[in-house]
């Protein structure tokens, strides 16, 4: 929460910052601040789907290294990229995001991947690069984001727009959110799991 509040406090007087922050949290991304973080998990799934659609080569390479958005993008999705410096560039991104929709943060992250695409594809261990994303470059990220928007299918883009406040999106994507510590109950996507894990999950759910 502090990471999300800080940019508002840097740009606005305290009372205005509180009002803007409250509106942002409770009106535009209420599913992000639920205890289960349903919106965050939905955003991560959509990031994978968007990357697979927009850049199947990069998506396939990362998946081949056992890397999904849960591995490298959780903090960026959860904080709307506020975890990546510098703050001056973040404020430019947020100006654009608030003007055009907070769903664009998912595409901001894909744009950041695009800026280091060659490094990722030529690295034997891309996870080392993805542990800390490079400093934000707002102008380039926004330019790439505009292009990314044009290349997404209407159906996927619609889910992207609604995922932060509409629970139906997570239901449509098959995301199962549970507070249960049982690992089998937390497997919200079994499409990529090997047979032995599917068998174990089926057994534990009976």
From TrEMBL:
Residues annotated as domain Rab-GAP TBC: 1-101
Coiled-coil intervals, chain numbering: none
Highest taxon above the source species: Eukaryota
InterPro entries in the record: Rab-GAP-TBC_dom, Rab-GAP_TBC_sf
UniProt protein name: Rab-GAP TBC domain-containing protein
Organism: Thamnidium elegans
Organism lineage: Eukaryota, Fungi, Fungi incertae sedis, Mucoromycota, Mucoromycotina
């Amino acid at each position: 929460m502090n990471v999300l509040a800080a940019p508002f406090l840097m740009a606005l007087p305290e009372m205005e910052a509180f009002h803007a922050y409250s509106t942002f949290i409770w009106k535009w991304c209420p599913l992000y601040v639920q205890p289960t973080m349903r919106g965050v998990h939905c955003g991560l799934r959509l990031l994978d789907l968007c990357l697979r659609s927009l850049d199947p080569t990069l998506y396939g390479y990362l998946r081949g290294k056992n890397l999904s958005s849960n591995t490298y993008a959780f903090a960026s999705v959860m904080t709307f990229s506020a975890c990546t410096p510098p703050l001056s560039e973040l404020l430019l991104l947020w100006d654009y995001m608030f003007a055009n929709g907070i769903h664009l943060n998912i595409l901001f992250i894909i744009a950041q991947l695009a800026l280091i695409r060659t490094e990722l594809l030529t690295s034997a261990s891309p996870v080392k690069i993805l542990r800390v994303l490079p400093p934000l470059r707002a102008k380039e990220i926004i330019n790439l984001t505009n292009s990314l928007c044009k290349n997404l299918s209407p159906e996927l883009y619609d889910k992207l727009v609604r995922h932060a406040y509409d629970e139906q999106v997570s239901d449509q994507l098959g995301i199962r959110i549970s507070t249960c510590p049982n690992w089998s109950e937390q497997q919200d996507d079994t499409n990529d799991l090997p047979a032995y894990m599917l068998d174990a999950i089926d057994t534990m759910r009976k």
